[in-house]
Every structure is written in structure tokens, then in C-alpha cells.
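Per your request, structure below.
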């Protein structure tokens, strides 16, 4: 890896054509499948990018905060929320989630492929502290290469079909076992912890397999 996933890196990503490509995608299928049985309340999408999942949640009655380090991503997200008519139900906050702490806890804390410059599992530790008692932690991340074996340089699609030229590096990924091992069983009820693979077509027409790790847990207290 020749860069760190710091603000400069993400600002450059979002100043390119990526915002447009990400905005064209559907909400994350894992979120769509898993969240349907939850009663809407407050939610935060950590590393919300162009806001696709935050907007989807807001349209389903959640009061949503979308947080991201990249101002250009958030500008796109705000425009889209207005266009979808949900801007009264979602606010977008520019924040470095490796240090920022919200003033409240949420009924749903979710993240999709967000990988900041701090270790991935420490990032998930931080998100876990933001979940209110009885609330849900829902993590969708890049699966660690040791558990899917895709070669570096094969390329991957992000969650909205935008092609990246390199596999996410190991430090930006995780396994289900590594994530659940950090969730104290006295505090967390783990509903599901899965490693899965799906094929997605990029705008360039090529198909790529996306390797996901998906963990859902409820905070008991
Ligand atoms: C791969 S993109 C995923 C975006 C979106 N969740 C999606 O699924 O399309 C990762 C996102 O995390 C954001 N991000 C990375 N590091 C961050 C940090 N330290 N604080 C807040 N957001 C961060 C990036 O700006 C980017 O929007």
C-alpha cells in the first residue's frame, strides 16, 4: 500500500468522478435485507459517502445522521437528500470518525466499507460504543483476503459498483470472527456474523466478485 486512508486520500477520491458513480448505486443489499425488521428510530451511517444508505434509511422513517470525513461526498449527499425529499430526516456531518464522538447514542449504528486510517477493528470498537441499549450494530466491511483468496491487482468494486484497481489492503478488511471476538457477550447479542460473496457489474460492464463481512449485533445494556 502506498498511501494511508487519511483525509487527504478520501478528499482526492471524492474530488474525482467517484461521487457521481457512487450516487448511481443501489443501497447496500445487506442493509436492505437486515434492517427491514427493525423499528425505525435514530441511526448513524459511519462513512456515509454520497449518502445512499442514509437516504434509504431516512425514506423508511429513520432519523439519520450521515457522517463522513470528505466534504465533497457530503455535499453530494445533501443534494441527493433534498432531491429525494428526505432532507428533513437526515443530517450530514463532516467528521473524522477515528477521533470524533457523537453526543448521543443511536438505535442503529451502521457502516459500509468504511476504512479510516486507524486499525479497522479499533474503528468498529468505536462504533460499538455509539449504540444505545437495545440498539443494533450493523457492520458491512471488506472481507479479509485470507478468507477469500482474491489476488492483489485483480481489482474490486466498491459497494456501489465503482471499480478500484487494487484489492482493499488487508488492514482495511476484517473477518467475522475477528469482529465478533471484540463484542463482549455480556453486552452484545450477536444475531448474525457472515462472510459472503456476490457478483456485481461495474458501469464498464465487467463483473467482479465482492467479498463481504457482515455482522449484526444487539446491545443488551
Ligand atoms: C469505500 S467508501 C464507502 C462509502 C459508502 N459507505 C458506500 O458504501 O458507498 C469509504 C467512506 O468512508 C469515509 N471515511 C474514511 N475515513 C473516514 C474517517 N476517518 N472519518 C469519516 N469518514 C471516513 C470516506 O470518505 C468514504 O466516503
Amino acid at each position: 500500500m502506498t498511501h494511508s486512508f487519511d483525509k487527504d486520500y478520501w478528499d482526492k477520491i471524492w474530488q474525482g468522478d467517484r461521487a457521481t458513480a457512487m450516487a448511481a448505486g443501489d443501497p447496500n443489499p445487506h442493509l436492505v435485507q437486515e434492517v427491514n425488521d427493525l423499528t425505525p428510530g435514530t441511526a448513524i451511517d459511519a462513512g456515509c459517502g454520497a449518502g445512499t444508505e442514509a437516504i434509504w434509511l431516512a425514506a423508511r422513517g429513520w432519523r439519520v445522521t450521515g457522517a463522513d470525513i470528505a466534504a465533497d461526498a457530503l455535499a453530494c449527499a445533501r443534494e441527493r437528500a433534498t432531491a429525494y425529499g428526505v432532507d428533513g430526516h437526515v443530517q450530514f456531518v463532516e467528521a473524522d470518525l477515528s477521533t470524533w464522538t457523537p453526543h448521543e447514542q443511536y438505535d442503529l449504528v451502521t457502516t459500509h466499507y468504511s476504512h479510516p486510517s486507524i486499525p479497522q477493528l479499533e474503528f468498529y470498537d468505536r462504533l460499538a460504543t455509539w449504540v444505545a441499549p437495545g440498539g443494533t450494530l450493523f457492520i458491512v466491511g471488506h472481507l479479509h483476503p485470507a478468507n477469500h483468496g482474491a489476488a492483489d491487482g485483480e481489482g474490486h468494486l466498491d459497494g456501489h459498483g465503482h471499480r478500484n484497481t487494487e484489492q482493499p489492503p488487508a488492514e482495511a478488511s476484517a473477518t467475522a470472527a475477528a469482529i465478533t471476538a471484540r463484542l463482549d457477550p455480556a453486552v452484545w447479542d450477536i444475531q448474525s456474523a457472515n462472510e459472503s460473496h456476490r457478483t456485481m457489474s461495474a458501469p464498464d460492464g465487467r463483473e467482479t466478485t465482492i467479498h463481504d463481512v457482515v455482522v449484526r449485533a444487539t446491545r443488551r445494556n
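Residues 7-219 form a domain with the Rossmann fold fold (CATH 3.40.50.150).

Regards,
D.
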